[in-house]
């Protein structure tokens, strides 16, 4: 039970940190923000890896394997497209002295 | 300490580092100058976490893990290389994939543990599976609509909200039964199936203009379901990543719903997308002034300040590169050109910025609504390209208008207004726009890309002549 309470604290604090950090993201970058958070969300892959690797049941292995595919494609695709988008954002050329 | 214990500690420490990198990743994303560093931090954090997980001693077989990782990467690369115009549907698709992963893991965990699942665990497990399933089908539907595989028009019927909420209530009630007795394994498939159906029905009444809000909301659900999965697996890393994603989606949903003047509950309960039947017929006799590209070019060429207002129509016409030529032509003449971006312009938050940045327009020329609105009264020409409702002055002064109260770009305060539009037919929401009937408004009828191209040619011709 103490574990659950500790986890709830972690969740609450992370949500507050998320609010504070994300509130500061310029509206200019809202699309990359969404694709980046999507990519980070793919960290669910760690749960899927354990599930697929532990081989506790046939069902768990199959579902875990599919879950790894889904999460990995999200991570790879998400980071790739976020970087591609951000590369395009350029400031006006300032005249060099 | 035994080796096993050392490994366990090492894994936990690496997860801690990954978590810090994730938070830094989002922090660095806040400004364009550091944003790419943010992506690097996220990538390193992800890679570290995956490598650490592979060290976990409970893993007995790596074959399927390896195959799945390679296959996932192979699917991910093309998903990362889609055209910028397809980013909204790609984003919806990635919400679906994230939710799929979470729902599958939740399902497997349930069958591994049942019937020995403590009540709190069963509750979060149910939440994980319900949110994951409805986000999966909901996001697929959204992606289908954005890709125009499915009809974009909202489909509504009487009692739609009642049916939807009833379905959700049934799923929650079944989850409660499972919490009371996790051994009721026959009920479990239902808390997958019902939310899957609910996800589809939830998106059926959504039209294109509501997509920015809906995508943000689905983003939030995907994050919350991942956080729930973190509780089930007792993974702080996952709880934090899910909480960050959830709060990001939540903030964006709030910004989007404010920009459409909808209360947040209105959005949460899926009451959006209702097309308000506009009072038709009353305005037929009003006249509009139209102009040719040549006339428009001579006014624009003589202006000192121009604000371009892009909307989804610009994206549909793929006009952003012509708009860039237009920007260059005017800038060369010493005209100050800026872009006014409404929060809900396009099909997802920030959509217009990405398209204009792709066309090489400097980001410091892209200004959001609050920053640019005070500039309109001192602006010679406001050029509206493919935007409609976000420029409608009725939102400011007509209490009877369905969009009354929605914050708009004050285009009508500019000295001259030009609107590029295919025809006089009203926009998506079917609401007439009084802006078009003002004396200072010139309607430029035609395809956005072709018309901007003509203006650019006229501007070039004038310089030479």
Percent of residues in β-strands of chain B: 5-15%
H/I helix tally of chain A: 4
Task: Let me know the number of strands of chain B.
Answer: 7
Shape category of chain B: elongated
Give an overview in words:
The complex is a heterodimer of chains A (97) and B (465). By secondary structure, chain A is mostly helical. Chain A has a domain at 28-88. Chain A contains four helices and no strands. Chain A has helices at 2-23, 30-41, 45-54, 58-88. In chain A, helix 3 packs antiparallel against helix 4. The model of chain A has no long low-confidence stretch (mean pLDDT 91). With 465 residues, chain B is an alpha/beta fold. Chain B has three domains: 1-81; 96-275, no CATH class; 289-464, TPP-binding domain (Rossmann fold, 3-Layer(aba) Sandwich), CATH 3.40.50.1220. In chain B, 58% of the residues lie in helices and 7% in strands. Chain B has helices at residues 3-28, 35-54, 63-80, 87-113, 119-146, 160-180, 188-203, 211-233, 236-259, 264-268, 293-302, 312-316, 320-332, 351-358, 369-372, 394-397, 448-464, and strands at residues 289-290, 305-310, 336-341, 366-368, 381-385, 416-421, 441-445. In chain B, helix 8 packs antiparallel against helix 9 (236-259). The longest helix of chain B is centred in the first third of the chain and has 28 residues, at 119-146. Chain B is elongated and about 80 Å long. The termini of chain B are far apart.
Give the tags.
heterodimer; A: 97 residues; mainly alpha; 4 helices; 0% strand; flat; B: 465 residues; alpha/beta; Rossmann fold; 3 domains; seven-stranded parallel beta sheet; 17 helices; 7% strand; elongated
